[in-house]
Write the structure tokens for this entry.
Amino acid sequence: MSEPPNDNPKPVREQGRFAYEGLERVIHERARLSILSSLAAHPAGLVFNDLKALCKLTDGNLSRQLSVLQEHGFVEIWKGFKNNRPQTLVRLTATGQERFLEYIANLEKVVADAVRLREASTSHPATEGLLPT
Amino acid sequence: MSEPPNDNPKPVREQGRFAYEGLERVIHERARLSILSSLAAHPAGLVFNDLKALCKLTDGNLSRQLSVLQEHGFVEIWKGFKNNRPQTLVRLTATGQERFLEYIANLEKVVADAVRLREASTSHPATEGLLPT
């Protein structure tokens, strides 16, 4: 028994294949991604000014984004003294680390999808009957 | 001649090391990243409805984001007929492809920075003299 020929072959468009729903909004915003990446690379934490320099953020923007990240349980904020000067130390929480790594796994999917393009030829097939707007 | 000992060794904090300025705002927004990734994977272009399904976007949101991407020269929008029905075809421009790949190279840096964390132990050194807020 053979299958009847398919008169209407259509590529299966997997619903949401490129929706990247794992790119969590809280992490995806560039300033916050920058903060979380810095903290991930420094497991002992970073003082406010070092974090500010690494992320090239203003005091106000860094404070605002840290509040958002703290509210969502991504970071811990510690107050203390170092060399007799008041300091703020920021560290990734265990949850923050876990969710950041999940986010990164999703970024890896975005990269893997794109790498195909880089490796493929840049063919531009004809588009007969179509006019640019 | 030997160098004098450095009494105050301090880790060099490369200014903006984690600023990720290459994560271009126009591309980084998740819906637009989704659209560009879909188009990058389909060099011949995609009709509006297929693009909508792949990105799980509403008609309104897809239209809006396509306008932004067209304004910035990332995509071409073509009007035509397929099976006697009016269709909209969307394709990545050459510039769009180039800038998308640059963006992806920057995402790869974010991933590479994070992979260190995944491979490192999850040590949490003591934070004497510091109190959580």
